[in-house]
Amino acid sequence: MLSAVSSPSVGTLSSMQSLRSLNKQVSVLQSQIATGKRVNTAKDNAAIWSLANSLKTDLAMNKEAAMSLSVAASTVAVASSSLEAIVTDLQNMKSAAAQHHTNGTAFATYFDELKQTFDNFEGVLSGATFRGTNLLTSGTAASFTVGYNNGTAITLSVASNNVATGTAYDALGDLFASGAGSTSATDLGIAIDAAINETKSLAVYYGSAANRIDTRTSLIQALNDNLGSAISNLVDTDMDEASARLTALQTQQQLATQLLSITTQNQSTLVQTLFRGF
């Protein structure tokens, strides 16, 4: 009889179960708030954890593509700006030649001046290098990863042009190499015009390549933003909601603790009353 009376009552057992449940919920919420993740391992939610990790893999690959696009943009920008500088110098050469001709300056006098400007182009071309890639001095196309499709890299190929061996550019170089006595102001003007057009054409190509890279970069950035948001929505803790729930649960936890204390105390009092005098 004593054993039956001293065993936990139904009310006490119920209070203990409620408190255990509340303690577990509070512990889970505290962990979610501390880590910032409501799904941190497969144990938390296997399906969501698996999906989030798949998206994280996609995001990691896209970030690599974004870095590659950044390198591509800089490589093309260096080539484009170098060509634009050469076009400007060629146009200045043309203007200078015309001015000297108008002023009656001897051709041989300004020929060497123009040749010196042309000779400087070699340094401009060789200096158009970014991270070891020069699109203006070799004939090998440069390839850049611009995205992934089901794990397979998507690449963008940008042609490389050896500017110095271009038809018009090479002809102008030969003309300067032959000396003032072997050419005329008219021939020089024609050769400079041809070199301007040829260099402009290359500048337009690299400008178009830059636009394609910019477009792809914008797409990758937008995709990465969306992937990041999707991952966050799947696994991150909503701090406002979690904090509110934690406060409510802690209040219930306190009440449950008090209730358990009361039921335990009442049972103890009952036992003492029943067996008083024994």
From TrEMBL:
The keyword Secreted applies. GO terms for molecular function: structural molecule activity. Belongs to the bacterial flagellin family. Residues 191-272 form the Flagellin C-terminal domain. InterPro entries: Flagellin, Flagellin_C, Flagellin_N. Keywords: Bacterial flagellum, Secreted. Its main location: secreted. Flagellin is the subunit protein which polymerizes to form the filaments of bacterial flagella. GO terms for cellular component: bacterial-type flagellum; extracellular region. Residues 13-137 form the Flagellin N-terminal domain. This is Flagellin. PANTHER family: FLAGELLIN. Pfam families: Flagellin_C (PF00700), Flagellin_N (PF00669). It comes from Teichococcus rhizosphaerae. It comes from the Bacteria. It is found in: Secreted; Bacterial flagellum. The keyword Signal does not apply.
